[in-house]
């Protein structure tokens, strides 16, 4: 026992008192941890029962509804404007690649809605009640994607998610932000390296889809949705980069043609000037 600089011996009564306090604290802590583990186990069993019921009764119907909604959105996108429409609506012709991009985006939107408002919302929010979670990098990647700061989520000085702290942000507001997120278009504001799409993609590496599926169906859907988000985001970045490069190339071609025309006009004027001077010399 440490005397904290007092340089004295403890009496037997004092030692016994301290040992009793330590043993009481240990017992209380063990009971608390046991209760936490039992709570997690019961919650996991409850969510597993929901997953099994969904796979048995709702999975096929949910997929049919998703397919139907995507089909309807594609039909509206490609439908020619009606004569009685108040505002003129032009339908630009699209090749198969462009159609596929729109279809993938519509399907992504449907899957996000399922997580943030639909069949998986309740199961996702249930993770707030867990004391310990498996595959925390999935949750962490969603936080980073939506712009949350590492300092609010992780152990100090590390990239290790501290769930006791991070779960305070695992709520309906988080899902609302995900619902409002879009993988298309430029991002505004400043971002940390760990909030970039390349870091998030690397953060998800090594996670087995089968293990996530066996742990939680809702988390597996989120994992798949994040992977789709990453793919869509990277494709959009490459597309916009190619578009910028093409605009730069076209601009340089226009400038070059303009310079060539100016050079040609200068040359023609010089030739006419020389011809005129030659005629004048001949007349004199």
Features:
284 residues; mainly alpha
What does this structure look like?
By secondary structure, this protein is mainly alpha-helical. The protein is built from 10 helices and no strands. The chain has helices at residues 12-57, 59-78, 96-116, 121-125, 136-145, 163-166, 172-180, 197-203, 209-215, 217-283. The chain is elongated, with a radius of gyration of 33 Å. The mean pLDDT is 86.
TL;DR of this structure?
This protein has 284 residues and is mainly alpha-helical.
The ordered string of helix (H) and strand (E) elements is HHHHHHHHHH
Helix segment count?
10
Strand content: under 5%
Kindly provide the radius of gyration, computed on alpha-carbon positions and rounded to a whole number of angstroms: 33 Å
The outline comes out as elongated
Secondary structure elements and their pairing?
Blueprint: H1 12-57, H2 59-78, H3 96-116, H4 121-125, H5 136-145, H6 163-166, H7 172-180, H8 197-203, H9 209-215, H10 217-283
Helix pairs in contact: 2-3, 3-7, 3-10, 5-8, 8-10, 9-10
């Amino acid at each position: 026992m440490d005397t904290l600089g007092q340089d004295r011996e403890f009496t037997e009564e004092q030692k016994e008192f301290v040992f009793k306090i330590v043993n009481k604290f240990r017992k209380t802590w063990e009971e608390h941890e046991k209760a936490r583990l039992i709570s997690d186990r019961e919650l996991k069993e409850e969510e597993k029962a929901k997953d099994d019921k969904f796979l048995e009764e709702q999975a096929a119907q949910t997929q049919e509804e998703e397919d139907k909604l995507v089909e309807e959105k594609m039909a509206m996108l490609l439908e020619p404007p009606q004569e009685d429409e108040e505002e003129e609506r032009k339908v630009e012709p699209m090749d198969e690649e462009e159609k596929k991009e729109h279809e993938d985006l519509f399907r992504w939107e449907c899957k996000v809605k399922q997580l943030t408002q639909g069949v998986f919302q309740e199961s996702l929010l249930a993770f707030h009640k867990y004391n310990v979670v498996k595959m925390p990098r999935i949750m962490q990647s969603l936080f980073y994607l939506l712009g949350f700061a590492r300092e609010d989520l992780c152990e100090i000085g590390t990239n290790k998610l501290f769930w006791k702290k991070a779960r305070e942000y695992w709520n309906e507001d988080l899902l609302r932000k995900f619902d409002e997120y879009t993988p298309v278009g430029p991002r505004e504001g400043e971002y940390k390296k760990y909030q970039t799409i390349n870091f998030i993609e690397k953060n998800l590496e090594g996670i087995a889809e089968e293990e996530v599926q066996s742990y939680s169906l809702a988390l597996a859907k989120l994992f798949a949705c994040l992977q789709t988000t990453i793919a869509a985001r990277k494709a959009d970045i490459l597309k916009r980069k190619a578009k910028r490069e093409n605009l730069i190339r076209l601009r340089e071609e226009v400038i070059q043609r303009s310079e060539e025309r100016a050079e040609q006009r200068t040359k023609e004027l010089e030739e006419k000037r020389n011809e005129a001077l030659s005629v004048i010399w001949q007349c004199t």
